[in-house]
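2024-03-11 09:14:02 INFO worker-7 job=invfold-0412 stage=load source=structure_tokens
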């Protein structure tokens, strides 16, 4: 869910201030990710492994042999797709040997490890994906309906909005332990496998910790919208 979507419903009163604070935090988190990534993308690792090789090494050490690694376009488009068992890396992380590239690649390998060992929160998150993508499609229509047809969020439309944001908030909440755990695994494996030296971990930590902030911002955004909707239902 984009932050813009979360701020589609601007309620009066105390929530107005909360929205501004959360919006500021979301922008700050995005700024931190960009600056941490750009900085550490300039620092080559001494070991010289590419992101692809690092992800492969982390997965092999965990006994994972059935996950393919693919290269894709775009900036920070890296992800692990559990349904296809594919680890997707952006070209700069796939081919790059920087601390940022290796950190991101190892983080995605962390998700592959979660999948292999049956990490419960990843299973829970995967189970929530269909409902989450459905409500993400419904929300713009709720916004349009409340704006043009009913002039405000009331009655059934308000209830539907609450259900949609409850699903989104739960999804963002479950995403937090999944993301934090993947980064924790990545940091541990990069050192224990000797892919990076201990003093190179600062760059990885900066990059992955900044990424964690964006997930936190997404959760808080969804939560504030949900609370404001519940509040307007009470009034
Ligand atoms: Zn992740």
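2024-03-11 09:14:09 INFO worker-7 stage=emit residues=235
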């Amino acid at each position: 869910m984009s932050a813009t979507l979360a701020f589609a419903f601007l309620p009066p009163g105390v929530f107005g201030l909360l929205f501004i604070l959360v919006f500021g935090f979301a922008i700050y988190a995005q700024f931190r990710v960009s600056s941490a990534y750009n900085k550490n993308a300039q620092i080559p690792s001494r070991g010289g492994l590419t992101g692809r090789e690092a992800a492969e090494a982390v997965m092999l050490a965990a006994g994972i042999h059935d996950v393919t690694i693919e290269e894709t376009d775009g900036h920070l488009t890296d992800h692990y797709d559990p349904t296809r068992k594919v680890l997707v890396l952006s070209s700069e992380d796939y081919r790059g040997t920087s601390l940022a590239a290796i950190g991101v690649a190892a983080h995605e390998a962390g998700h592959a490890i979660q999948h292999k060992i049956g990490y419960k929160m990843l299973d829970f998150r995967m189970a929530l994906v269909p409902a989450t993508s459905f409500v993400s499609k419904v929300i713009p229509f709720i916004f349009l309906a409340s704006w043009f047809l009913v002039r405000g969020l009331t009655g059934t439309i308000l209830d539907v909005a609450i259900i949609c944001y409850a699903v989104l908030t739960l999804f963002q909440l479950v995403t937090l332990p999944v993301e934090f755990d993947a980064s924790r695994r990545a940091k541990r494996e990069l050192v224990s496998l000797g892919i990076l030296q201990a003093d190179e971990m600062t760059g990885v930590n900066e990059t992955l910790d900044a990424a964690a902030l964006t997930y936190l911002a997404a959760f808080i955004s969804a939560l504030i919208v949900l609370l404001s909707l519940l509040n307007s239902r009470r009034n």
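2024-03-11 09:14:09 INFO worker-7 stage=report msg="The first strand starts at residue 68 and ends at 72."
2024-03-11 09:14:10 INFO worker-7 job finished
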